[in-house]
Design goal:
- It is a single chain.
- The chain is mostly helical.
- Among the domains are: about 170 residues, no CATH class; about 230 residues, Alpha-Beta Barrel (TIM Barrel), CATH 3.20.20; about 170 residues, no CATH class.
- The chain is about 60% helix and about 5% strand.
- The chain is built from 38 helices and eight strands.
- The protein has an eight-stranded parallel β-barrel, surrounded by eight helices.
- The chain starts with 16 loop residues before the first helix and ends with a helix.
- The N terminus is likely disordered.
């Protein structure tokens, strides 16, 4: 068993000594809270468990038994309190680590040495070093965009009220970075921190009811409005400074560098709680927040821009627009005191605010588009530049203008998603053809061509004809699922008219397989009244998720781009096509190695297809929070992608627990966006200079084929695997957690095939085997090494970004996994299924050995000492929660899984282990 020494015995580098001090102080504070709130007995039990868990990790003989003795015999309530204690410790340690990242970033900037790696200044320096001309550098940044799309998949197991308290703790820790603080300031900060730790202790961790779509919407919009809205101008400013200091030039009026999106309120896939009503409510809420933010900012600017006519001039354009708006809103002019009447900018901005209020109320003279509002603010920007205002308000007004361009009147574009199989069922209902879902893609395509041709020719434009618009009165007579689907298309039409085209993102077809899936959406859009075939620039996005579907993606796009219906549709969209690739289901289908290689080949193949047909391709990456679902360092993932598949755009999902980890604190969110933007610019810039990885394709084919066979042999082909999985992991607890508005399975079956990837990964993470992040790779690497030679494998790991990224991600998962802890769950597994654990352990050992051999390392994460240290220090504090989870699972299942104290305690273990590992699903 790898040693995991006590915190006091670990060497911290000088740069990390402040983190050690913070963790010590916070640990003492948590101990005081436990003693105060839980009593001396609880405190002593927690201390004893911590002591023996550390000794167990150090290999002390008998420590495992002593740890078991401390924890055995606890009733459900006592176990829950012990778990809460360890979970609280991880809450504050996680925050301390995030704040330390901010501390290190600030220190790096203060030192004034070379640009911080991953910063935009560093990106610009690298481009210059690679002899990229200044004009090309400007072009790269002007055409690049990051589009984080926030989702509400059930991966965030922490309540919003707890997250709010964590944010307040983090803010106080950040305040402590100020070197000018007094002892009184320190006392106040620690008082606030203790208050929030204590109130969090006194707050129920587990919501009594599953969150609604509205709850999830507010959760996601918090990060958009309170973090992204505030930091996006700073991202532009950092880039402008980097370009100016490097002598490259000025960025100019480029398009937004970042545009957020959301699935919350539009993701219908497997979620019966999402429909046209939630879609409309969500867009209304987005609009209200955007307008409110602009009104507040304009009011502040009006108070600030007090320039008087006796001191400065302003442009004729501002004066002319002021006169026009004065006629529209005379009550505003009459309400301006005489002493302020000569403050031209102030008066104009108050009138702009009045027009925004008219927009909010749908009144006369409302702005019809955000472009109109941006035009008014541009007048102020230009006037300030021309009349001595560069240091008298231009900064704030420019920031507002950038926000308007990025967020529009919709704050975040709302995507719609539905399962292709559900859409086929809807078509079957509308056509009265129950055999439709089982017909071949070719048969469905031919029929849909005919239906859409009727629309294009004007036949059946309305009424009961199967090609035309189905009126609301007719929709009520269809099946419930058909009416629900068509109502959403009608809502999209209304939203475009009310909020503008940018408010709506893609219509995503999950589990897409062929051209007929896209044609299905186009036809249903007509039936829902979205538009005729001649004016339907709907962004229809097929999502390829399984390994076989990814392997067919290139040929499907070839057929799609030449389809007689889709080709004209593309023409009306300026030949732009968004295609989504799924990391979660492809991994669940074939294992991590097979999924990653299938994705890599699909990205290159789709880029080739787009190039052949002169289509601008945007790939939407459906990444999850964990490595098993495509998570990990985004900049490393981008560096491994085929350059032609990027094209300056990175659209990716931000899911579950990663939202708070990546966007909860503004400095970390800004750093995250910097690294993503820089990575896509660098990868796009090197599109023609990267070596062709074809020399390693055979190697990857061998790894993938063997790994897939090994993985599927266990997961899908072994007759006892289902029993092994459902009894040897806490999947039954996770299925009972109220952590998302949609069910854990797409369909009401208990098989692996129908289980969503999120609870699938979550359950293996909880039992510490992390099986989904490595199983099969060891066999694949071993087979490839035998066939291609160790030196070839090592060369590929050093020179091929794809292979290096795969090994790095898996190495991190292997370091977090603990098969000795996972073995404890064997007591819960039926006797006949227990031999499968030997298969798992052998493959784990094989994977560790192969990764270390290829990377020429002695231990896992030897090249990532900070992460290695963090994992080793965390493990002893996670172990007691796993031991308790096993015992509680046994008791709960023996009692036939009732609600009550045992389930509540189990839910606490899930939260605590997730915090300790910093991984869920």
């Amino acid at each position: 068993m790898p040693s995991s020494p006590d915190l006091r015995r670990v060497d911290f580098s000088p740069k990390d000594e402040p983190l050690r001090q913070d963790v010590r102080l916070l640990g003492d504070l948590v101990g005081s809270v436990i003693r105060e709130q839980g009593g001396e007995d609880l405190f002593q039990c927690v201390e004893a468990a911590r002591h023996w868990a550390i000794r167990r990790r150090e290999g002390v003989e008998g420590a495992a038994g002593d740890l078991g003795n401390v924890l055995s015999g606890l009733d459900a309530d006592e176990a829950a309190e012990v778990i809460r204690a360890f979970s609280t410790y991880f809450q504050v340690v996680n925050l301390a680590e995030r704040v330390h990242r901010i501390r290190r970033g600030r220190q790096y900037m203060r030192d004034g040495r070379e640009p911080h790696e991953g910063s935009l200044a560093h990106t610009v320096h690298r481009l210059i070093a690679e002899d990229v001309p200044p004009g090309r550098i400007l072009e790269l940044f002007q055409s690049s965009r990051v589009e984080p799309v926030f989702t509400a998949h059930p991966t965030e197991s922490t309540r919003r009220v707890i997250l709010d308290k964590q944010e307040r703790i983090a803010q106080e820790l950040i305040h402590r970075l100020d070197p000018t603080r007094t002892p009184h300031d320190e006392r106040v900060s620690w008082s606030v921190i203790r208050e929030n730790v204590t109130t969090a202790w006194q707050t129920e961790e587990h919501p009594s009811a599953r969150p609604t779509v509205a709850d999830e919407r507010e959760h996601v919009l918090y990060y958009v409005t309170e973090v992204l809205y505030r930091i996006l101008p700073a991202l532009h400013e950092q880039l402008e400074v980097a370009l100016k200091q490097a002598g490259v030039g000025e960025l100019g009026a480029s398009s937004p560098l970042v545009r957020p999106g959301s699935w919350v309120g539009g993701d219908m896939d497997g979620n019966p709680n999402v429909d046209a009503k939630t879609f409309r409510q969500t867009l209304q809420r987005h609009r209200a927040l955007a307008l409110h933010a602009y009104q507040a900012e304009i009011s502040q600017l009006a108070d600030h821009l007090t320039q008087s006519a006796s001191r400065v001039r302003w442009s004729e354009a501002v004066s002319t627009r002021t006169e026009k708006y004065s006629v529209w809103f005379p009550e505003v002019v009459h309400g301006i005191p005489d002493r302020m009447a000569g403050m031209g900018y102030r008066v104009f901005l108050q009138l702009v605010g009045a027009r925004l209020e008219a927009t909010r109320a749908d009144g006369d003279h409302a702005y019809t588009t955000p472009t109109e509002l941006a035009g008014d603010i541009e007048l102020v920007v230009e006037s300030l530049r021309e009349n001595g205002g560069e240091h008298a308000g231009l900064f704030g007004v420019t920031r507002l203008l950038r926000r308007i361009r990025a967020f529009g009147f919709h704050m975040a574009a709302l995507d719609v998603r539905q399962d292709a199989r559900e859409l086929r069922d809807v078509v079957a209902d509308l056509l009265g053809d129950p055999e439709w879902p089982t017909r071949t893609p070719t048969e469905r395509t031919e029929r849909l061509h005919g239906l859409l041709a009727n629309v294009a020719s004007g036949n059946g434009a309305r009424g009961t004809h199967t090609s035309g618009v189905m009126e609301p009165s007719e929709r009520s007579g269809t099946s419930k699922r058909a009416a629900r689907t068509l109502d959403v298309f009608a809502a999209i039409r209304e939203a475009r008219q009310r909020y503008g085209p940018d408010a709506i993102g893609s219509y995503i077809i999950s589990m897409a397989q062929d051209v007929d899936d896209v044609l299905t959406v186009l036809w249903l859009a007509v039936r829902g009244g979205l538009g005729s075939a001649d004016d339907m620039p709907l962004d229809v996005t097929p999502l390829f998720e399984t390994v076989p579907d990814l392997e067919r993606a290139e040929s499907v796009l070839d057929a799609l781009f030449t389809d007689p219906v889709v080709a004209p549709h593309l023409g009306r969209r300026d030949r732009r096509q968004v295609v989504m690739v799924g990391y979660s289901d492809s991994n669940k289908d074939g294992g991590i190695a097979s999924a990653r290689w299938a994705l890599q080949k699909a990205l290159q193949g789709m880029a080739d297809a787009a190039s052949r047909h002169d289509v601008t391709l945007t790939v939407f990456h459906g990444r999850g929070g964990t490595v098993s679902r495509g998570g990990g360092a985004v900049h490393r993932a981008v560096s491994a992608m085929p350059p032609a598949s990027i094209g300056g755009r990175l659209r990716l999902t931000e899911q579950g627990e990663v939202i708070d980890a990546k966007y909860g604190l503004a400095p970390i969110a800004l750093r995250n966006l910097e690294r993503m933007l820089g990575s896509i610019v660098l990868r796009t810039a090197t599109a023609t200079s990267q070596p062709d990885p074809s020399e390693w394709s055979a190697l990857a084919d061998t790894v993938s084929a063997t790994a897939r066979s090994t993985y599927r042999g266990l997961v899908y082909e072994h007759p006892r695997f289902k029993d092994f999985f459902r009894s040897g992991t806490p999947i039954d607890v996770i299925e009972r957690m109220a952590i998302g508005s949609r069910p854990a399975s797409r369909r009401s079956k208990a098989g692996v095939e129908d289980l969503r990837a999120i609870p699938w990964v979550f359950s293996w993470t909880q039992c510490r085997s992390m099986l989904t992040g490595w199983f099969g790779l060891g066999s694949g690497l071993e087979a490839a090494t035998r066939k291609h030679g160790l030196e070839t494998m090592r060369t590929a790991a050093e020179e091929w970004p794809f292979f290096d990224a795969l090994l790095a991600d898996v190495e991190m998962v292997l370091a977090k996994a603990d098969l000795d802890i996972a073995a404890l769950y064997l007591d819960l597994v039926p006797e006949e299924a227990r031999p499968l654990f030997s298969v798992v352990r052998e493959e784990f050992d094989r994977t560790v050995a192969s990764v270390l051999e290829i990377r020429g390392a002695i231990g896992l994460l030897d090249s990532e000492r900070t992460l290695q240290r963090s994992i080793r220090l965390r493990n002893p504090y996670v172990d007691p929660m796993n031991i308790l989870q096993v015992d509680l699972l046994r008791r709960w299942r023996e009692q036939d899984r009732p609600d009550g104290d045992l389930l509540d305690a189990l839910l606490s273990t899930v939260n605590g282990i997730a915090r300790g590992l910093q991984n869920t699903g």
